[in-house]
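Lab notes, practical 5.
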Amino acid sequence: MSELVRKSAAELGTLIAQGELSSREVTQAHLDQIAQTDSAIHAFLHVDVQGALAQADHADKSRGESNSPLHGVPLALKDVLAQKGVPTTCGSKILEGWRPPYDSTVVAKLKDSGIVILGKTNMDEFAMGSSTENSAYGPTRNPWDTNRIPGGSGGGSAAALAAMQAPLAIGTDTGGSIRQPAAVTGTVGVKPTYGGVSRYGLVAFSSSLDQAGPCARNVLDTALLHQVIAGYDPKDATSINAPVPDVVAAAKRADVRGMKIGVVKELSGDGYEKGVADRFAESLAILESQGAEIIEVSCPNFKFALGAYYLIAPSEASSNLARFDAMRYGLRVGDDGARSAEEVMSLTREAGFGPEVKRRIILGTYALSAGYYEAFYGSAQKVRTLITRDFAAAYEKVDVLVSPTTPTVAFKIGEKSDDPVAMYLSDVATIPVNLAGVASMSLPAGLSEGLPVGFQIIAPAMRDDRLYQVGGALERELHAKWNGPLTNQIPDLQVR
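Output from the prediction step:
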């Protein structure tokens, strides 16, 4: 393994800017790491070797014209964001081979900053899942233990970071799909405020919940990437037209003296493994030792969040996925000239959508149907309002809220495949954030039985900087304890 792939994105950006390294050298080192490890990990669905090297060469030529701290640094992109001319499948057979004719706004911002996109990462089909086992192209494996899941739906992006295949990644988070993979792979992932990062060109699962966000192996790198992709976009009707909080300054400040940190009572106790609870308690003790005040906070309506989410998200998915009709792009099955459009559409959806996607489309269609809309979807939206009010009341008392990111460490591949409810419970601590549209981070809190545990920080809308301020302070103490990022402790045997 090249020592280059162990360096942080900030370090690589500085070395490239100073001319001590070329972007091509750095990009090639990461492409080599992918070639050496991805047969075991399967983090990538498409590695754009020639495209990445061409971008790296362009970054080297334009080095003197850029003031981006990430100019020339490589990145792994979740395969749910459109990238012009590059396969974009959303982990589904129904989009196999589709090459978008345009860039999503996130991709355009990455390119404008000189970031090199290595390829597209594996994911649960249409972002529906918590394990990356629902990908039509096979599961991604966790570099800590290749018999275990890397989280979902963005397991490919998180695994790529943990396996040193990329120093940066983009994920998307509808109910925890950035934070849960970060937790179980020992990496950092942020779900920005809803509307803080453009959704233009992000293939929709649940439009009122989906949010793209930055992923990396440390807090500062995540902040630098957040700064690149955030900001108002007139192409996205839900984009917030307001200044982006200075997340980089907050990550560097990393001072919690005088801050009030609220522990959510409803996001602990039964269902949380002892090792997870122990690492959470240790992290709280660190923050308290640094001058923060720890306060228990009750958010009573959080207990209804899981049920509300699994009515709202499938309902929106049943509408959004109706566009995949075999008529305009993607897969087309049974078009022999003798069948009607309806028959071709039905055959294509039967062949193209996987079991979890079909399950959620059926559930969402039922929840929106005449006679049931108010009882199910309408009631779920009322619960969403109550959860939003819980957050508002909590933030009158504290600056941020905290909890474990996930109730357990990474489980074994196949362990929960036949039990959807057990799988859904993986996101019990992350889902309230999406329902309310607030900002959240997961960062590593240590190990339980040799596997990573995540610590979740939740901040008010458009106060994403608080995530980095608290996360940076906690990380500083933990990095001193671990001698760097937690991923440095991954056994080489697992990623050879």
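Observations recorded by the TA: The chain is about 40% helix and 15% strand. The first strand starts at residue 44 and ends at 47.
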